[in-house]
Structures are given as structure tokens and as C-alpha cells.
Amino acid sequence: MSDPSDPAMQAYIQANAGRFTDEALVEALVQAGHDPAAARAAVAAAAAGQTAPPPRSRAVRSIVIAYVAVFAVLSLGMLANSGRTSGEFVPTGAGGIAILAASLGVAFLISMVWVASRRAFALGLAFIVGLAGLGALTAGGLYGALPLAIAIGIVFLVFRAGPAPARPSTTTVGVLLVIPLLLLLAVGGICVASGLPIPGAG
User: Fold this and answer.
1) Which end of the chain is more exposed for a tag (fewer CB within 10 A), N or C?
2) In angstroms, how far is CA 24 from the centroid of its own chain?
3) Is the pLDDT of residue 202 over 70?
4) DSSP per-residue letters across 140-155
5) Are 38 and 2 in contact (CB under 8 A)?
6) Does residue 28 sit in helix, strand or coil?
7) 48: number of Cβ within 10 Å
8) How many CA atoms within 13 Å lie on the side-chain side of 1?
9) Which candidate, 116, 115, 31, 78, places its Cα nearest to that of 194?
């Protein structure tokens, strides 16, 4: 049985810690001939001594800050423009803030699912698309076959892909932020395009 303090093992962990997941480090050490229990102990000890937060924690923190900042800026703009005339399809400033909060809330929940598991996100997306396709088919629309086929294709690709390979932590953070930032830009862009947060518009 190898010793968790084995210099070769420690050197490998120090050279690769932060670049790959703990599971990938353990697997590499085991393939190199080290005892699995010792490899896990060494990786766990190294992880306990690291001060930098894991990629997922950094991504969540960045997402929260970005969503709160966008909500605050757009809400202040709508409050400053609260005197504008509202209509049937144009809410007041308070109504616009409520709609913005609901929209950002949904986008934030979707983002958290993406951060927690890209597989779960893909399966959830397949469920929504497939449900829409089934609804269209039951209503007599043959065009519903397309989203249904897309949903089946997503499920097939998810289960065929298997576990995601280890990626460098910087790449992982970037991947984790893609969907949340796209959703944030979409919601914020629609809000700005409505003119509600722009004082003097309308």
C-alpha cells in the first residue's frame, strides 16, 4: 500500500491540482500504480489545504453578482421613469420591476440547474421541448414532430456521451457562465428595448 505522503504522488498532485477534478487526479494516480485509498487520501489532503474556491462556487458567486447588479440598475431606471404613461401592454415602473424580477428569477433558476449539472439541464430542456412537441401533435399539428424529434435526440446524446471528461478549472468556469450570461443578456436586453428603464422614453 502506498503512503499518501509519497513524494512522487505529492509532486503530481501539486503540479495538477486546480487543473483537473479530484476524481481525475485519483484515477491518474491509481493508473500510475498507487493504492486507491492512498491516492484519495492524498488528493483530499491537498484539496483541504487549497484556499481558492472551486470553479462551481466561483461561477455561482459571479452569477449572483451579475444578476443582482442588472436587476438593481434596471429597477432604478424604471423607478426614475415611473412617471411615463402606461398602456394596455406597457406596465408602470412598479409593474415593470415585478416582471423583471420574475423573468430574472426564472433565468436564475435555469442558470443554477446548468451550474449544478449540464446533464440535468439538457434533460430538462429535452423535457420542455418534447412536451411542446406532444402538445402540438395532440392539437393536430404535424409540426410538433420536429421538437419531439429534437427532444429525443438530446436525450440520446446525453446518455451516449457518458461522464464528462475532466477539464481545466478555468475552462470549466467559462462553460458554467455561458448559459447564465446569455439568459441575463436576453432578459436585460428585452427590458432595455421596452424603454421602461430609460428615463424620458415614451
Assistant:
1) N
2) 22
3) no
4) T-GGGHHHHHHHHHHH
5) yes
6) helix
7) 7
8) 8
9) 78
